[in-house]
Model the fold of this input.
Amino acid sequence: MRKYLFVLIVLLSINVLASGGTLKQNSIIECNGQYYGNHGNPIHWHKAKLNKGMWVSDGEETNIPPCYIKPMNTFTEVQFSKCIDGDTASFIINKEEKTVRFLAINTPEVGGGLEKEEPFGKEASTFTCEKLKKAKKIVLEFDSNSDKEDKYGRILAFVYVDDELLESLLIENGLAEIKYVYGDYSHLDELKKIESIAKDNKIGIWSENLADIVEENKNNEEKIIDIIINILKIIVNFLVNLFA
Done:
């Protein structure tokens, strides 16, 4: 049964690819009797058609449809609930606790569980937590060009602490990089300028010795892998000789 299901999925995928690239399903609009949709980064538009229940491109890239009106970003004031790490926190939104993933950035991991601690992970987490705890006002900005949630069900938003964009502050202090950009988000030009300055000044994650730290960790991991492989070889040889 699994074999036939796999073959069916492959055939459907080939069919979709043959008929044109898949478009963002929530981007489809109708304009003067023609359907349009977009995808990619940066976003680009195509005429759209339905194929097996999915909207796919129906031709080469086209101009922005004349009927398209860019939706406005929305804002909501929230209450801080708890810290998680440098780019994630929980807030009270409409009387419910929700986890929010800060849009368009990524901070190093703090470690724990299956995750390894990365350089400046704890610093980024501490920075974010202190900013949120001390803030008198916290506002979330929901970008119209972003999905509402990520694949883990976390809300995606820009975060303001006392009218300052937290993403900007993290990047400025070398505690975050621009990442996971899947659309024409607001503030990107500003964030790129700030990131460029942090890189030039070798601040935080862009510092010169960080490359040495990463390389050292990589070498240690390779040594551990070699040890494990050698142990497995010994075990295999032992079992082969045992049952020979």
Summary: Residues 2-62 form one domain. The chain has a mean pLDDT of 86. The longest strand covers residues 74-85. The chain is about 35% helix and 30% strand.
